[in-house]
Amino acid sequence: MNSNDPKRWLQRIHALDNRAPLRILNVCGGHERSITLAGLRRALPPQIELIPGPGCPVCVCPEEDIVLAIRLALQRQALVVAFGDLLRVPTNLPKGEPRSLEQARAAGGEIRPIASPQEAVATAHANPQRSVVFFAAGFETTMAPIAAMLLQGVPDNLSILLSGRLTWPAVAMLLASETPGFDALVAPGHVATIMGPEEWAFVVQQHQLPAAVAGFETASLLAAFYSLRRQQLTARPFLDNCYPQVVRPGGNPGAKHCLEQAFRIGDANWRGIGIIPNSGYHLAPAWSHHDARARYPELAAEERHRHGAMPPGCDCAQVVLGRIYPDQCRLYGNPCRPRNPIGPCMVSDEGACRIWWSAGARRKAAAARGALPDSIALVKRSTQPIDER
To answer: Measured between alpha carbons, how far is residue 224 from residues 165, 203, 230, 286, 300 in Å?
Structure first.
């Protein structure tokens, strides 16, 4: 069988005994985008439920970090650089104040979107008399190049406001709860490429749930879904690597070395969720003098009292935890839309709400999760531009 043929994988899935429900959690915004735009929810047997999970680093970036970045730009005249999605994430600041980095830029702050850590270094070199702050949020795949940047050396005028997170602790937290809400896991291939597939072995070893690592093409995802259903039917869960072209045992030693040298692992706040143990990257002591929180302790201390809550009425945290579908949020579509995002899940290209809306899911789902919302079941990939209004 051609392992790259999605139709053949679908045939194999439909040929299995699909009478029992199977709830599969994905942990990657890229997976959710591929699943949704390819219409996989509609193509799979209805008993297989695909649940978007905590795969968006922008969505869980603490509110206090965003507010600190705003204060640094407006009150300390720092030149703030950040990955583009971060600029539009709203906070709960009082009306009349800039509530996002984008609004802070409109109010006179110098804030620039960048696409890579190298751009942050280049900006600092080009502005030697300025204090440049790199506001860096992301998971392992983003943190590895930032770690490499630090190891290569950075200018003295560059500070790092780090909001890096690890993916697996959020899944571990869900599995440790009384109602994890899923029966199997599809793990992100790009994270496993760096950290190694073994990082997800705890799902099988500690919780006896099926697990599979998948890439981002339809065939790889369907191969993972087939494996997960087979594991369920045989009652023999194991960690299956369905992305062997890229994912190797042990991961990427060079990238892991960079992460180990540049960062330390500690507890971290996830917006709307709270503190998750051992889920955050923190600068190692050798780079503490580049820590923006240490360079501006008075502002950092002022913002620590913020609880990082979602905006009133926003259910992004429940979406991130896989408790509800995006279109079951109270604000989904009205008033929260990509052009006027209320919650962070509608901002980022990796946010489930933004993905669903861009794919055409316009109607809110009334039923509780467990029944597939019609609005996403009927989505077909469009070749026409999406109207996001």
So the answer is: 25, 15, 10, 41, 43
| CA distance linking residue 200 with residue 222, whole number of Å | 19
Q: Are 150 and 264 in contact (CB under 8 A)?
A: no
| Helix (H) or strand (E) segment spanning residue 230 | helix 218-234
Residue 380 pLDDT: 33
Using only C-alpha atoms, the chain has a radius of gyration, in whole angstroms, of 21
* Residue 373, pLDDT score: 41
* Measured CA distances, 208 to 235, 319, 387 (Å): 9, 25, 43
Which letter does DSSP use for residue 330 in this model? T
Average pLDDT for runs of 10 along the chain of length 389: 83 98 96 96 98 94 95 97 95 92 98 98 98 98 98 98 97 94 97 97 98 97 98 98 96 98 97 95 97 91 66 94 95 94 94 96 62 36 34
**What pLDDT, on a 0 to 100 scale, did the predictor assign at position 3?**
78
Nearest-5° Cα angle at 161, 142 to 306: 115
Query: Under 8 Å CB-to-CB from 234, ≥6 apart: which residues?
Result: none
Helix, strand and coil in the chain, % to nearest 5: 45, 20, 40
d(CA 48, CA 242): 18
Cα–Cα distance, 387 to 389 (Å, whole number): 6
Predicted TM-score of the model (pTM): 0.91
Amino acid at 217: E
Please name each of the domains of the chain with its CATH number: 21-306 (3.40.50.11740)
Query: How many CB atoms are located within 10 Å of the residue 130 CB?
Result: 15
Instruction: Work out the angle at residue 148's Cα, subtended by the Cα atoms of residues 147 and 151, and round it to the nearest 5 degrees.
Output: 90
Amino acid at 262: A
Pull the structure tokens for residue 286: 């050798």
